[in-house]
Amino acid sequence: MCASYVIREYQDRDADSWLRCRLQSFFHTNYYDDVVTERPAYAHPTVRHVAAADKSVVGILDAQVDGANATIEVLAVHPDHARRGIATALLRKTEAALARYAVSTLDAWTREDVPANRWYQRAGFVESFSYLHVHKVDADDATGFETPTGLSRPLTAFMHASRDHEASLRQQFRRVYVCRRYVKTLNAPPDSMSDGA
């Protein structure tokens, strides 16, 4: 393991290393099957930072800007470089870069991985909404599913659901995750602060 890393803007030459970092970072999480084979393109302006060490990308953070809000599209740290402050350094660099867009809130979505949820909370994010990600896998019962004519029963499916149905869905499907939206206020206007703050 290298002793140091540098936070900088993503460069096109980082593409392969970026993909490897994302894949290996997600491998032991609830997002283990969220595999991409090329770097995503975004519809809106995007702040893209990497943590680089020994010419390899060991951390990534992409935040897409849409008006006064920005969304963290991906935040990942290679497991060999975890718990070194890389995610926090990436967040700080990204927050500073978002200032030029006059972004007032930054949000992120994550599943049930305890370390990720704790990190967002420590970083000043507050949970604002949650719902369920439901994966039907081949071993799950296909009762109730319909397919177009000519196709066999569905082997897999990915669905969203309200948390009102969480207990019954967890009994029916092996992979059910709570997906949480976290929000952090970046540039609160002075008049929004209470007198006692």
Helix count? 4
How many angstroms separate the termini? Answer: 44 Å
Low-confidence sequence ranges: 188-197
Shape: globular
The helix-strand sequence is EHEEEHEHEEHE
| Mean pLDDT rating | 92
Protein structure class = alpha+beta
- Arrangement of strands in the largest sheet: 1-2-3-4-5-8-6-7
Count of individual beta strands: 8
List keywords for this structure.
197 residues, alpha+beta, 33% strand, disordered C terminus
Your description of this structure?
By secondary structure, the chain is α+β, with helices and mostly antiparallel strands. The chain contains four helices and eight strands. It has an eight-stranded mixed beta sheet with strand order 1-2-3-4-5-8-6-7. A hairpin with a 2-residue loop joins strand 3 and strand 4 (69-77).
Short description:
By secondary structure, the protein is an alpha+beta fold.
